[in-house]
Structures are given as structure tokens and as C-alpha cells.
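Sorry to interrupt, but I need a hand with the structure work. Could you add the entry underneath, on a fresh line?
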Amino acid sequence: MIKNKVFSVVFNDLRNDNRVLNQAFSLASEGYDVTLMGIQRKTSLPATEQINGVKIIRKRMMNNVIERIKYVRAVYFILFVWLQFFRQARIKYDIIHCHDLNTLQFGVLMKLIKLGKVKLIYDAHEYETQRNGLHGWRWTYVKLKERFLIKFCDRVITVGPTIADEYVRLYGIEKPAVILNCPILRSKEVIKKNLFREHFGIPASKKIFLYQGYLYPGRGIEVILEAFDQLNLADGVLVFMGEGTLTDEIKKHPKYGESVFVHPFVLGDVLLGYTSSADCG
């Protein structure tokens, strides 16, 4: 039996994107031949590996010198991505799975190069035109870009029924399939752990309040810190588990290391152990 070949692409290093990984693993378990391509920001991550039947490729984008030069970095990034997609276009795939709008233009190009002989799937991980920090000419650009590119897609996937209905209203397309951002169902009962207490030396008498996710503006992080300061809890600590542009700001908090902590992302297979280590989140 010939397996359908799937090329799935995302612009991150695939360390913590459980949605993308779980979809790829599910396809592989159903007999699809899946190649998943991301980018390699940290050289400690393998350039290629095989996990649960999925071939994972991480492409190293740029060196330290190029990363420091803003406009050179932007041009280099565009040229780099186009080169990688042209290389992949030589391989005979049956399905191209584009995660988020920032990969869709390359998927459309691959479909055109292959004269439409490949199916194109657009997986919108959020309501793209309403992302945090998107306004002005950038909002207009994203709106027009999505409206144009979505016409080339054979199927669209979203994260919730409300967004799916909105895409039908906006673009007049077939209602997108909905795949929720849910963890894999576990048959075993979750055993509560104390990983944060062990890592940061937090005493058992203090309750742990956990924020878990990216540390970017617009996610309520500043509000959480302000509320925590106002409450001034003697028996509580605040742990931010994630990475992003606000990491350094959190570390400047006067109570950082005492009642405010930051922990980096962890792999999905151990994430539940960390989540269960908090008292509230």
C-alpha cells in the first residue's frame, strides 16, 4: 500500500508546539508518511530526528552576526525560507500542511509549482487578523493576504467553532474543520508533583500560582503582576512558565527570586508534571 506523503511546515523549532506535533503523530499512526519542517534556533536541537514515525527537520536559519542586523536579518530570512521551499518542492508530496498564515504563501507557491497536483491545508492556530499587536497597515496587509491565499486551499482547519464560522462569513469558504488544542487523553491518573518547589526552593506552606504560556505583551502578564503586588500575599508565590519578550521585564521585578519566578518551557511529555506542581493557574 502506497502511503500518502505529507509535508507539514511551521516557523518554530518544534520543542513545545504540541498542537503541530500531535497532529503529525496522529497522521503517522494512521499510515501517512509525514515530514515536519521547522527552524533551528538553538544548535543544541538536532537538525533531523525521527519521533513516533514522523521525520522532523530543523533548518538552521542564520548565524549570530546576521541575527544582530535587523534589516539584513529580515531579507536573509525571506530568502532562506524561499530556498527551503524550493528544495522541498522537488519532492513528491501529496499534501502540504501549512501551520499559521506566515507559512501559507510558501504552500501556495508549492501547489502552483506542482500545477495543483498536491492538496493544500491551511491550519489557522488562532484568529489571524485579531492577533495581539496587529493594527494599522499590518492588520490590513494580513487581512488581504489571508483573503487572497485562502482561495488556493483545499481545506482549512481552525482551533474553535466560533472562528470556523467567522472564516465562512469573511471568505465564503467551506466551513473549516475544528481541531481543538487539547492534550492527549491519558488513561492513568495524574499524580501531583512538586517540581517547582524542588527547583526554586519554595516551602510547602506557600501556594503556587502558575501562568503557563508565551511571555508576550497583550496576554495579561502585566495585569497578573500588578494584581499579585496589590494582594501582597504572604503565603503565595507566582511562577511564570514560558518564554518571550517580557522575560527580562519579569526578572526585574523587585520580588523576583523571592516570590516571583520564571521557568522556561519544557517538553510536552513532561509538561503535565509541572502543571500539577502548582496550586492554582
